[in-house]
Amino acid sequence: MVRCYRAAQWFADGQGRELQRILCSMTFLPSPDLTLPPDRAVAGATVADGWNADWLRPQWPAPASVRAVCTSRSGGASAAPYAALNLGEHVGDAPAAVAANRAQVHQALGVRPVFLNQVHGTEVQALAKGCADGTQADGSWVDACGLACTVMVADCLPLLLCSADGTRVAALHAGWRGLAGAAGGARAPAPGIVEVFLQSQAALGVAPGRWMAWLGPCIGPTAFEVGDEVRTAFVAQSAEATQAFVHRSLGKWTADLALLARQRLQAAGVGQVFGNDSSPSWCTVGNPLRYFSHRRDRISGRQAALIWLV
């Protein structure tokens, strides 16, 4: 446990590059003494469904028609510094390795993941049969079987939702810009991706209170240092957001991204929110053996959170 902690500290401090090179060249398996989120898939279940034992399976009261998972960095074909299950085509990894990794996930799930061109915005795409990868959006939703709503992350928050009746699911990419509605450096934040999605669904007859949400791993509250502009973007819309920021130095704060997402969801009318509780086991920066992190490594792969109907 001490060795894992020190490795995480070296990564977070930007030191130990030789250690990073060695670790990233390996295929990682979970250590029995590593602290894990409670949503980690149990080994007995993964044998039956073919999922990697290191992936997270949301523990939430979703209807039987809903399936969801969040991948980790273990088990793929990519070499360092993208070892091993990198799912991002845009990060500099070998295209053949990314294709093999995506095919591996497709095979494990039994449905096709639809990958988006994410731009830290608020656009949410409706998926339909025949839709291709690469649509510019930061979220997707679907009301039919056969396609998995998919968002890639390496510190941003993956947010999965399902309707109470199990007929619709969605995946949102919730970085701070998309969450605050501050995409493109807007001075006056517009509704964020949570509000945009829920408002569009309400127009289709699904009220916010009929959704439940699961928050996946993201950069944790002790690792996410931001400037005044980030805090202002949230606090200008809700005084409650002050609870998610801790002052560090002149113009610098640490931010709790998962808490900010919970606040936005609950304010919008989503009463059931599960998953990431901002504890260390959910932090992408502090768990280098399990998660990719752009903030920690700069050159990094991407894990994905996926949700679909059966």
Q: What features would you describe in this structure?
A:
The chain has nine helices and 13 strands. It has 310 residues and is an alpha+beta fold. It has one domain: CNF1/YfiH-like putative cysteine hydrolases, CATH 3.60.140.10. The strands form three sheets. Strands 3-4-7-6-8-12 form a six-stranded mixed beta sheet. Strand 6 and strand 7 (169-174) form a beta hairpin. The longest helix has 15 residues, at 95-109.
Low-confidence stretches: 1-35, 41-48
CATH architecture: 4-Layer Sandwich
Measured between the Cα atoms of the first and last residue, the distance is: 39 Å
What is Rg?
A: 18 Å
**Helical coverage, percent range:** 25-40%
What is the CATH superfamily?
Answer: CNF1/YfiH-like putative cysteine hydrolases
Cα shape: globular
Count of structural domains: 1
The ordered string of helix (H) and strand (E) elements is HHHEHEEEEEEHHEEHEEHEHE
Category from helices, strands and their pairing: alpha+beta
Strands across the major sheet, in which order? 3-4-7-6-8-12
Strand residue percentage = 15-25%
* SS element count, helices: 9
Sum up the structure in keywords.
310 residues, alpha+beta, four-stranded mixed beta sheet, 13 strands, 20% strand, disordered N terminus
